[in-house]
Amino acid sequence: MELDNKTVIYIGFDDTDSLRGGCTTYLALAIIDSISNHCNFLDYPKLIRNNPNIPWKTRGNGSISITVEIDRENIAYIKQIIQKQVEQHYHMDENTNPGLVIIEGEISKEIQEFALRALVKNISILEAKELAERFCLFHFSKGNGRGLIGGLAAIGNLLEPEKEDFTFELLAYRTEEFIGSKRRINEKSVHEMDQQLAPKVFNNIDSETNKVLICPAGKDPVFFGIRGETPQDVLEAFSLIEVEEPIGGYCVFRTNQGTDQHFKYADSKAENYSVFKGEVEVLERPITITGGHVFFKGKICVNGEEVDIAAFEPSKNFKKTIKKLIPQDRIIAYGGVKYKEEFKKHSVHLEKCEIVFLSEYYKEEAPLCPKCSKRMTSDGYLKGYKCRSCGYKDKNMVKTLKILERDIKKKLIIPPEQAQRHLVKPFRRYNLQKKTSYEIIEKWWKRSSQV
Ligand code: ATP
């Protein structure tokens, strides 16, 4: 898009952190801070969660894009600032492969289509490199360049208000000297904030254990994150949280978290590392294996392929319900696929599940006496039944089948908040009105030693 001497650029990046430190969202705040005097932000930074089933993610497979309008003559300068920030901030280890892409003007259909595939499939680095060559004004990577995948996906996943669901997350950061120590937050204030603002905020508290979920555990600079429906909601929630250490800054991100966007684009093909959505018939009763995980053998209804379906710890009540399924029941399984070499079979790890058909459950029992209505007893192998009460015998009588009531209902079940993946839509978001627009509020980010 060309506006006189102005132009729009999209900056996408990923894979800048490791489990030992760093955070791609923190790099986003550093970039925003460093370019803010030279550009006009056209949107919140987008925090896009991609396919959660790829094995090389650090945590939640998140990537970032920033959309800005700049003076054409500043392109080279801005590019230089951003590249410097990426080089300064990435946290290198053998699993860190940073990628930065900048696109000017239109976002091509190819990039948009790529982004939707990155939500559900395993994408090759080569494909990302080729797209970056074709469509980017600039791209830069280190290591094997895998970060280019997330960088392109964050730009191409437009989260257009009329077409896609989206939410917001305010991430608050720690100051340098506190990183690595226990996070000092007043948990009571988090509970009160949640009670006051629900359902406009979500996934702050685990509903099964009452545990506060907003603080990560690692050495990264994130202090806490609050998820909500609008930028105003997350900012209000932020103002209600009491902390006992300084906050080094915050930033509001627009995101696909809590939207089920990956299930919208998933199919029922069982492919390693892909997202699965499909109807499955239960073939055998679920069993609990070591570690408390629940498994059952199932059949994908559209193609008859046999798969294992798994519900993992710590999805407590979720697993208990899965355990009640019996052969011929049918579910819509939503989850991630892994190929198990030792069994030469795929397994689907459930993220949520809709129970759509419950088969009849019978119990075999001895027949009632046709004369006195008392329960009869077997008269021996192939000798039919006799009545102990009135003495009636019939060698042709057989067991009868009694239909038992099932202790399970047709419904949607979702693991508790603490076991949910970032993309999963929690129950709290189910009956909300669809958003078709959002406002860019004034104070959506701040970086300082004391906010
Ligand atoms: P964090 O949440 O802490 O930012 P992360 O969980 O996002 O970390 P990364 O360290 O960014 O994990 O690693 C994920 C890597 O996987 C990135 O290089 C990203 O580009 C790549 N990736 C993202 N989506 C896909 C996909 N669909 N197929 C293959 N690779 C992908």
Task: Report what the structure shows.
There is one protein chain. Strands 1, 2, 3, 4, 5, 6, 7, 8, 9, 10, 11 and 24 form a twelve-stranded mixed sheet that branches. A five-stranded mixed β-barrel has the order 12-14-15-17-16. It folds into four domains: 2-158, Alpha-Beta Plaits, CATH 3.30.70.2200; 167-259, Glycinamide Ribonucleotide Synthetase, Chain A, domain 4, CATH 3.90.600; 267-358 and 406-422, OB fold (Dihydrolipoamide Acetyltransferase, E2P) (Beta Barrel); 361-404. It has nine helices and 24 strands. The longest helix has 15 residues, at 75-89. It has 451 residues and is α+β, with helices and mostly antiparallel strands. The model has no long low-confidence stretch (mean pLDDT 93). A hairpin with a 4-residue loop joins strand 16 (330-340) and strand 17. The site of adenosine-5'-triphosphate has 25 residues, from helix 5.
Q: What keyword list fits this structure?
A:
twelve-stranded mixed sheet; 451 residues; OB fold (Dihydrolipoamide Acetyltransferase, E2P); 4 domains; Alpha-Beta Plaits; binds adenosine-5'-triphosphate; five-stranded mixed barrel; 9 helices; alpha+beta; 29% strand; Glycinamide Ribonucleotide Synthetase, Chain A, domain 4
Q: What's the architecture of the largest domain in CATH terms?
A: 2-Layer Sandwich
Terminal CA distance reads 36 Å
Q: Compute the gyration radius: what is it?
A: 27 Å
Shape type: elongated
Number of domains: 4
Question: What is the strand content?
Answer: 25-35%
Mean pLDDT: 93
Q: Into which percent range does the helicity of residues fall?
A: 10-25%
Low-confidence stretches: none
> Compounds present?
adenosine-5'-triphosphate
* CATH class placement of the largest domain: Alpha Beta
Structural class: alpha+beta
